[in-house]
Please model this.
Amino acid sequence: NDATDLAISIDNQLNKNILTGILVDTPQADIISSFVNPENIQIVDKDGNILANDAKVGTGAKIQLIDNGNVVDELVVVIKGEINGDGDISTKDVTLQRRFIANWESDIIETAADVDGDGVVNAKDTALIRRYIAGWDVAL
Model:
């Protein structure tokens, strides 16, 4: 299994194979090169555009297994605290998370917003992201 070469875990959530364990700021070339057969792997962003080698992989990106030009399997990337899919953890993610908590936003991957993994997206998760952005001793 190609995916076992990454220091990641795969979880089937909502009938999607979710891939966790990728660090923020990881370029797609680093992920692809970690697979046994990298020539059969492509990564697309959350909108379906193929990422350039130096592009950062963000939440919602898909790592796809290609066979004869067809996608035969894919994993959806989830990076804790990286909610908007741009590959960075920033105040944009905090804003999106707070909008979700207030029920103003529903189109997010909750696993990324639930930073502490307690099953609920709440102010505690927001505080953890803010502490991470501030450079305090918080690992996401």
Observations:
- The chain has a mean pLDDT of 86.
- DSSP finds four helices and five strands in the chain.
- The longest helix spans residues 91-101.
- The radius of gyration is 15 Å.
